[in-house]
């Protein structure tokens, strides 16, 4: 009732001890959740200027920030709850001035002043909290901090397994005032029936119903695909036209 129970296993993905243990076992390897930068690049380049200050939350040992720097991004601050991951990444990128690494809990980023970043990128971190204890509270704390850190007009880009039924009630709270665009990407290893190529344009936003769900006639090409929510922080003049969605108990 209070967690993403259907997508979680017995691990507490919101616990620093779990992640410290995992990164010790991986011993300096690299792992990117869900999608590699090559798949996400069209969305990142479309919404995030290369000169903008970027916050990568839950960076882990992923290669995405490195690949963004190779693609021209100039200032990426990476945070993670795991001190083990941060220590490894600091050593790895010691001579890459565009990348900074800090141990931090996304539920309390008070180290940073308000409106410190133009963009916040989240590839699986909100999902991890939704698998932890006190999931609704943790999600609210994290998203409140993300909103505080975004400049007006800034972008929170969430890559997640959560469909709009599970994620829109958390993202579209009136306190945030975000204008949200939704996209869908098949898994990198997804095989289409018959081996044909897709006719869909993944860069075309998916309309969201007034109830905050996918349209009834929308068919997911890959039933286990990933969703990209591009949340733009509005100024006060744009808030009145944004709909809100009730947070039903079964998706808290």
Fill in the keyword field for this structure.
alpha/beta; 27% helix; Rossmann fold; seven-stranded mixed β-sheet; globular; disordered C terminus; 252 residues; 7 helices
The helical percent reads 25-40%
Rg on CA atoms, Å: 18 Å
> What is the assembly state of the chains in this entry?
single chain
> Can you tell me the CATH superfamily?
Vaccinia Virus protein VP39
Q: What is the total number of structural domains?
A: 1
Pfam family, one: Methyltransf_11
InterPro entries: Lys/N-term_MeTrsfase_sf (IPR051419), Methyltransf_11 (IPR013216), SAM-dependent_MTases_sf (IPR029063)
GO molecular function: S-adenosylmethionine-dependent methyltransferase activity
Domain Methyltransferase type: 55-157
What is the topology?
Elements: H1 16-26, H2 37-47, E1 53-57, H3 64-70, E2 75-80, H4 83-92, E3 99-103, E4 117-123, H5 125-130, H6 135-149, E5 150-160, H7 164-171, E6 178-185, E7 226-233
Parallel strand pairs: 1-2, 1-4, 2-3, 4-5
Antiparallel strand pairs: 5-7, 6-7
Structure characterization notes:
The chain is α/β, with parallel strands linked by helices. It has a single domain, classed as 3-Layer(aba) Sandwich (Rossmann fold), CATH 3.40.50.150. Helices cover 27% and strands 20% of the residues. The protein has 7 helices and 7 strands. The chain has a 7-stranded mixed β-sheet with strand order 3-2-1-4-5-7-6. The radius of gyration is 18 Å and the shape is globular. One of its GO terms (biological process) is methylation. Residues 55-157 form the Methyltransferase type domain.
Short description, anyone?
Helices cover 27% and strands 20% of the residues. The chain has helices at residues 16-26, 37-47, 64-70, 83-92, 125-130, 135-149, 164-171, and strands at 53-57, 75-80, 99-103, 117-123, 150-160, 178-185, 226-233. Strands 3-2-1-4-5-7-6 form a seven-stranded mixed β-sheet.
């Amino acid at each position: 009732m209070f967690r993403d129970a259907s997508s979680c296993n017995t691990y507490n993905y919101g616990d620093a001890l779990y992640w410290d243990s995992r990164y010790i076992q991986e011993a300096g390897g690299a792992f990117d959740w869900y999608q590699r930068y090559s798949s996400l690049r069209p969305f990142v380049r479309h919404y995030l200027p290369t000169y903008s200050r970027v916050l990568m939350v839950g960076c882990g040992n992923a290669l995405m920030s490195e690949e963004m720097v190779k693609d021209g991004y100039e200032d990426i601050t990476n945070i993670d709850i795991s001190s083990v991951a941060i220590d490894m990444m600091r050593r790895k990128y010691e001579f890459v001035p565009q990348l900074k690494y800090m141990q931090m809990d996304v539920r309390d980023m008070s180290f940073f002043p308000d409106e410190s970043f133009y963009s916040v990128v989240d590839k699986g971190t909100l999902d991890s909290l939704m698998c932890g204890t006190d999931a609704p509270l943790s999600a609210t704390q994290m998203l409140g901090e993300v909103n505080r850190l975004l400049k007006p007009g800034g972008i929170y880009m969430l890559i997640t397994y959560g469909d709009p039924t599970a994620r829109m009630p958390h993202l579209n709270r009136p306190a945030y005032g975000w204008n949200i665009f939704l996209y869908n990407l098949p898994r990198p290893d997804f095989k289409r029936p018959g081996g044909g190529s897709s006719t869909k344009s993944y860069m075309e936003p998916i309309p969201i119903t007034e109830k905050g769900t996918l349209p009834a006639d929308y068919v997911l090409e890959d039933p286990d695909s990933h969703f990209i929510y591009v949340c733009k922080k509005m100024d006060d003049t744009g808030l009145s036209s944004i709909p809100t969605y009730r947070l039903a108990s079964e998706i808290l």
